Amino acid sequence: MSERTWVPVPEGSPFPVENLPLGIGARSGGRPTAWVAIGDDAVDLAAIDALGAFVDIELPDRCWSSGRLNEFLAAGPAVWSMVRAALGDLLTDRAAADRLARAIVSRADLVMGLPVAVGDFVDFYSSIHHATNVGRIFRPDAEPLLPNWRHLPVGYHGRSGTIVADGAEIRRPAGLRMVDGEPLYGPSRRLDIELEVGTIVGVGSDLGRPVTADRAGDHLYGLCLVNDWSARDIQAFEYQPLGPFLGKSFATSVSPWLVSFEALEPYRTTPPVQKPPVADHLRLDEPWAFDVTLEVLLQTSDMRARGQAAATISRTCFADMYWTPAQQFAHVTANGASSRPGDLLGSGTVSGPERGSEGSLIELTWNGERPIELPDGSTRTFLVDGDRVTLRGWAGGDGGPRLGLGEVTGTVVPNEEER
Amino acid sequence: MSERTWVPVPEGSPFPVENLPLGIGARSGGRPTAWVAIGDDAVDLAAIDALGAFVDIELPDRCWSSGRLNEFLAAGPAVWSMVRAALGDLLTDRAAADRLARAIVSRADLVMGLPVAVGDFVDFYSSIHHATNVGRIFRPDAEPLLPNWRHLPVGYHGRSGTIVADGAEIRRPAGLRMVDGEPLYGPSRRLDIELEVGTIVGVGSDLGRPVTADRAGDHLYGLCLVNDWSARDIQAFEYQPLGPFLGKSFATSVSPWLVSFEALEPYRTTPPVQKPPVADHLRLDEPWAFDVTLEVLLQTSDMRARGQAAATISRTCFADMYWTPAQQFAHVTANGASSRPGDLLGSGTVSGPERGSEGSLIELTWNGERPIELPDGSTRTFLVDGDRVTLRGWAGGDGGPRLGLGEVTGTVVPNEEER
User: Fold this and answer.
1) Most buried by CB count within 10 Å: which residue of A60, A83, A144, B284?
2) Are B174 and A334 within 8 A, CB to CB?
3) Are B357 and B163 spatial neighbours (Cβ–Cβ below 8 Å)?
């Protein structure tokens, strides 16, 4: 179908006309507004709206110019679908090409920001492989999964104010961590990544009104990539009994382009069987796994200096997740908590069952015991200043069409105290 | 000094002219705007601004009409002080009375909302008596305080989207909890309160720029009351290993009137000695405890029907807290996390050392073993539908002038599933 659009879409682009992901970007000196990505280009949604592209659709005021997609998301699935259909029509109607020419820019000319203003960020722990790995590393003599794990998608609130956009510098955090048996304040020595997929809430839900998993589709918009940077030493000292805090709250990177569940529909697949069966409110009436391949790429500053490309250090599949976005949303609201457009549900680290499919360095290097070798001859247990990490994801596996989530990158910079 | 204002202030009012707390309220049918409380009245800040009250002060645009105090808070301590001084002058200048008459309403005619839009809500665990009590109840054979407790103010992120205003109905939450050894989804049977004091961040801080405790005063605006409603059975099943989530996220009540640290200055006092000494970034250069007396009042629906006043079930003192607001803020930013105007730092349950000074039912009733007796002849371990809980706080102890934090009330309503 990619050939049908009049916009040139390079072979293997994550953004063919089947995708149409939305994001917020700004041209040099401009204000951030809403765009749709196609190939290497992006289309200015406010501009084509002004040209009448959405004339029959009841859109919220200023939904393309508010600098965030929250207002558009709040409009609901019918509007999402109509906008998607209108965009598909325009971008495959060769007669529209001239009219729209001025609304199209190269994506290279945009600085992308956060696609949404996140109200509440809930981070989950939904990969059984990740939870098992972490349990084995930290509690080698005990059952790796805690008793609640198979009954509910364990999660906690992250810090929404430190969610950062693609390309952000990640300053190495400082904190109290145990050094020779004493808690000392200083820069983390065990800085890690977490490869996650984020679900963005489109339509919120009211206080006192739980949404069951079989109705979650009325609320959830789509997916993005999330790097939940983690300082393992800070986390280890602080996390009892109230959970992770400073070990996570210094930065969370989110990818710029939101891919709708409507676009991902062909890649919907059956999640792993849940045993024991889950409670009624978490039961799915349709398959809520998605066949999305994920990769972690690492480029050291030496590799950059030598012109060496980033190395793939992990490849895994989102479809392996034990708990799905619909169940995560049902869990968030199960106690009657309300939710808002733009709320972010982080999947938790996506790890597969094989070596090399783990979504964090603490797993990939087994708590630092098995360093990773890199093309510049260096090794890594945890991140070194200057390291650049990119997460990448696409639907359809290796063979099929490449409908991508795009990428999110962050570069580690030194802590002030070290300079 | 109360006699000096030309507004009649009833004896014992929490809001004498020395207080001047700010809040957001709406008259019937009106939009929410900013007010200052004095006695039983409130003064419309936008109206007196239009009359020239703040003519020499550089205020942010629309800071009284935006429906939240965030913009005013972001303006910083110099502006806070100037506004406070201008209000004090006006309210003690008898010649201004006629001019301001139209800007004053009875507080009874206002519906108060949330004073701020909270970006991130961090809930702490800063009372040594509370942490010790909880440790003894849940781990009777172990050291009640975990190894990190005296080194940092343990805290975690709460849900900002379910912060509710004074007077809100609190729907009994449902969730998975252990019933006869099986996890079952249903309404909580152990619904509790947590008496807390909230610190409101005025001026935010930048990503990558920790603020040490001795500079926290440049950022923190003042105090409010917080009831962190808690479902102990849901919390007990979910909280390992990532901390509390649904057991807390269904509702958090915040009082309407923010009392500035400037007003509280006469009640500043020395916090408990910290042993071992804390890390440099948490060290205080001035006393950051406040002599604020706190009470929990409970009124059952039967008591209401009989016209019985609410019963005081706990009285305690905020000055007993081991960790102070300045240290909590320093901790939040210690890893470089940014903060925003309107961020809320919940103190954690304020419990004192004596029986009857505990800030939660789980402590007051010692995990349900010592029911509380109420004036209607009923007893309570945890909350029953129809129970109305009010938190109250004032500076200066019993004898001194009553400079109050005001009150925050919530009433428990049944879960849908039970009706």
Assistant:
1) A83
2) yes
3) no
> Looking at chain A, which residue has its C-alpha nearest residue B238?
A148
Nearest CA to B91 among B24, B13, B36, B147? B36
Q: Chain A neighbours among B 123-152 (CB < 8 Å)?
A: 125, 146, 148, 151-152
Residues B131-181: tens digit of each pLDDT: 999 999 988 999 999 999 999 999 999 999 999 999 999 999 999 999 999
Taking only the tens place, the pLDDT of each residue in B179-226 is: 999 999 999 999 999 999 999 999 999 999 999 999 999 999 999 999
- In chain B, which residue's Cα lies nearest the Cα of A242? B243
* DSSP at B203: S
Rg of the Cα trace of chain B?
A: 21
ipTM for the whole complex: 0.96
How high is the pLDDT of residue A4?
Answer: 87
End-to-end CA distance of chain B: 53
CA distance B352 to B359: 8
The reported pLDDT for the residue numbered B396 is: 84
Residue A182: count other Cβ atoms within 10 Å of its Cβ.
10
In contact, B417 and B187? CB cutoff 8 Å: yes
Distance of CA A132 to the CA centre of its chain: 22
Tell me the HSE value of A312 on the side-chain side, using a 13 A CA sphere. 10
Closest by CA to A116, choosing from A345, A269, A294, A333, is: A345
Q: Are B192 and B231 in contact (CB under 8 A)?
A: yes
Tens digit of each residue's pLDDT (9 = 90 or more) over A40-71? 999 999 999 999 999 999 999 999 999 999 99
Residues of A in contact with B183 (CB under 8 A): 148, 151-152, 279
User: In the predicted model, is pLDDT for residue B401 greater than 70?
Assistant: no
Question: Choosing among B242, B328, B344, which should be mutated to test the A contact, i.e. which has the most A CBs within 10 A?
Answer: B242
Question: Are the CB atoms for B179 and B54 separated by under 8 Å?
Answer: no
Other C-beta atoms within 10 Å of A87: how many? 20
Cα angle: B212, vertex B263, B197; to 5 degrees: 65
DSSP designation for A35: E
Q: Which of residues 310-339 of B touch A (CB under 8 A)?
A: 331-332, 334-339
